[in-house]
Design goal:
This protein is mainly alpha-helical and 361 residues long. The chain has 15 helices and two strands. The two termini are 13 Å apart.
Amino acid sequence: MLAYIIRRLLLIIPTLLGILLINFFIIQIVPGGPVEQMIAKLEGFDAASGGATGRFSGGGGEVSVAGSSYRGAQGLDPDMIEKIKKMYGFDKPPSERLWLMLKNYARLDLGESYFRDTSVIDLIKEKLPVSISLGLWSTLITYLISIPLGISKAVRHNSAFDIWTSSVIIIGYAIPGFLFAILLIVLFAGGSYWEWFPIRGLTSGNFDELSLAGKILDYFWHLTLPVTALVIGNFATLTLLTKNSFLDEINKQYVITARAKGLSENRVLYGHVFRNAMLLIIAGFPAAFIGIFFTGSLLIEVIFSLDGIGLLSFESAVNRDYPVVLGTLFIFTLLGLLMKLIGDLAYTLVDPRIDFESREH
């Protein structure tokens, strides 16, 4: 198993390298980069409205950035343009910039943000508490609800309980998480009815003055609505997956044999069926966690004014803050690959018969 883990960890390196290379070269051909935005600002144009092509027409000359020509340099001193390019590192050819980036990433130096006057690592550290809070608690609660509910539905298949819970699940699945978030605000955050929960931030303004118990309560008070919105949008799929997995196992021959031997229903269900049925659930855990942790919480962060990684990545992409875009991509990919490895190792904990190392020979 140790040899398998080492091989998987070593495979992370070329995988990360490939993803970074693809995205780096995509960035080179995307118009409207930081140099062009600065030129637009100096010329009095709004970079956000400069057009989908990223060209800012001033009726003047053109400057060449990253191998492409961009308008909008009329009236600007060429030396000023060169200083702008040097400030963002675009005075170097793409190959040199790529090599410098990879060397820095090997030391976990993700560079400096173009527009936020801070390092990418510090930005990620600043935003992580929000994303970890949303991802961790949403995933945990989703699994705590979905797995027992899915097992109960499988055991009581076609019963009244199965039918009415399926109706609830279908309704939950049909309502997008962000729409449910708005409904929660209208109902419980002073929108039109009750004002029971806050709608801004992860903690209150007087958080530092609270006692330990008060801080814990305040933290979960702020998380209640956004986590609820995320859970509603994610528990349906996992519940049905759990039910179908257990139904598939319950009808197999080894279950019939176990029952014929006189084993209790709980012993059959949790001693034999559970181990096999949970393999499929475990397989989806890394993707579920990473999805909620990063991408799934973007709209929720916006709606509840939570400044997390999802919002940071979106704003950086819009503003062409390339160090932040590539830095967060690097962290996302690394965590995703590590979570996939952890998911594979969890297979062996649930079912020791699985041996990934022997399958590779």
